[in-house]
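Note to self: the last two entries modelled the partners one at a time, which told us nothing about the interface. This time every component goes in together.
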Amino acid sequence: MNIEKKNGEHFRVTPWEVHGEVDYEKLIRDFGVEKINEQILEKIKKHTKELHFMLRRGVFFAHRDLNWVLNQYEKGEKFFLYTGRAPSGPVHLGHLMPWIFTKWLQDKFNAELWFQFPDEEKFLFKQGLSFEKAQEYLNDNILDVIALGFDPKKTRFLVDTMHANLMYKEACKVAKKITFSMVKSSFGMNEQSNIGSIFYTSMQAVPAFLPSVLKSRNIPCLIPHAIDQDPHFRLTRDILPKLGYYKPASIQCLFLPPLSGMNSKMSSSESASAILTSDSPNEVEAKIKKYAFSGGRDTVAEHRKHGGVPEKDISYQYLKMLFEPDDKKLQKIHDNYKSGKLLTSELKEILIEKINMFLKEHQKKKTLAKKQVKKFLKW
Amino acid sequence: MNIEKKNGEHFRVTPWEVHGEVDYEKLIRDFGVEKINEQILEKIKKHTKELHFMLRRGVFFAHRDLNWVLNQYEKGEKFFLYTGRAPSGPVHLGHLMPWIFTKWLQDKFNAELWFQFPDEEKFLFKQGLSFEKAQEYLNDNILDVIALGFDPKKTRFLVDTMHANLMYKEACKVAKKITFSMVKSSFGMNEQSNIGSIFYTSMQAVPAFLPSVLKSRNIPCLIPHAIDQDPHFRLTRDILPKLGYYKPASIQCLFLPPLSGMNSKMSSSESASAILTSDSPNEVEAKIKKYAFSGGRDTVAEHRKHGGVPEKDISYQYLKMLFEPDDKKLQKIHDNYKSGKLLTSELKEILIEKINMFLKEHQKKKTLAKKQVKKFLKW
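The predicted structure of the combined assembly is written out below.
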């Protein structure tokens, strides 16, 4: 599928770029994923008791075969989780969002997690990125993931170049079933695409069935991920049954928007767009104050009179999507902002404090994580 | 380059198929390799004292940059050898030919040899071949290679799926420099080619510079191989300088013809075509007697009168290319056959005895080789 054409001219979502204001309803139709509805939320809740706020608020909004994976779970067949990170820069808040949710799933379902670091992916897709640089990012990104508190006994990291002895052979089995014509229509590959980028999707397919290979039995897989990765997993789902494995299920989230507004997604390559996990309290404060797009009015007087627009306000959105788990507190912020009682500057202060509290802890845990790397990498 | 078109309709040579009566002069022009001439033979002889009969008789007939690699050697910069075997069936005499010569080079130049077993290649290119079957062949083929007497201290085996931790990352570096368009013109890939086969040439490039990577210095590489593999190494030669490595040099041999006549090359998939290294004395005798194409005349009387045609006689060709290193003895056989003094049946007896003597030893060494596998694989 040529995503660009299908999505029209206003926005574009591929595994390598997200442009424009994303119309998620259109994406659901174009990608052919299912919307997460009340019924499936109830089904999750049966097992988790409470629902994560990212589910309650539709941050995770779409899925494939989530019903099936829960049915299997109810029959006693546990699933494993698979997610990942292609190192190509420092980690920002947008990256953390699905990982935080993944950790919740791990805890609630006592699930094994396979976390892939495809360290060759961005090298292959970005002209200027060297392997050396990608691996510097890898070493740093790994610490961010560990810092989130994944259970080292139930979490295995897969670094494509380091675990190629396990992965390359399995990737070849996938690759034999995928033609150039298929990657052309799934990812828009063309005659000038390099042959590493053409092959790459087979490597991304591997963690979805590697545990089944290693344990010699078919194990259901659930992939929490941002929706831009769906084209990979759509292909994976086509191929895996041909190799005798289950189709992986998936649960998909929105993009955390950049500081600049409700457009595309947060990106480390634009400094005015992202809060990095390495940012200092002063940097966070400065970035939010300077760049966080405001849904407020031009003057205080007007704001008091007409109120702000939380739907367009980045600070409110970050609270909703990531930093204020308490629905009541969030509602209050929403209402006060909308009524004009809460000013943009005050809203920003709330967010700054939340982020800095989070990052202080995260940075501490990241330092401690250095001692744990081996446990996650060598298993 | 679309080899099929370039070679015309009478024969075709690609890394995956050889059809028709090969016009080697045309291949030299089409591939753009250099013919091995007297001057370069003299240069080799300076170091080896004697010339291997495969050089004297033009079995190794073409090269790329052989002069350069010898010049570097004279300046004190030693080269390593790289050759390989893609396991997809049992080993036959045609496979042994370049390996026997490679062993001679190893001995004469005291050269390290990197022997690649791309166990994914034929899996990716042959519809019906499973990985399990390819790896059965691998286990057997490895023994054939060891049986030839390569120095375990100076020989390293690279099995693509087993050594992927070392190879995949380097292959990605190559792959980033090769477009689909390039493999389309080099190998005739098309929209229906699977993405593993499209990527594969990058893996075949790796052994040509992996020793340089591991030793952190640029080391010249010489690849002895049958000429059908030239399209791979032509691409490799284009890419390696872009990664900071020397272009690998190569020395290329003819194909050992099948039993059926001077056409295409010996192939294990046709039982009437090949002598396998596992054949018993009786099998060898039966195959040669039944299938080895004869350059003799229809009746003994005619043969005595007009003589045979050694150029077309498979038994004579096998003696020339592989089994009779003594030039004087070969010349005598040639002259007697041509004059009609030597009958086809007698010529076949000479060959049968030679092959069976060789295979008796080879099979013994192959059994002993089992104990050595580890040394070659784990280094």
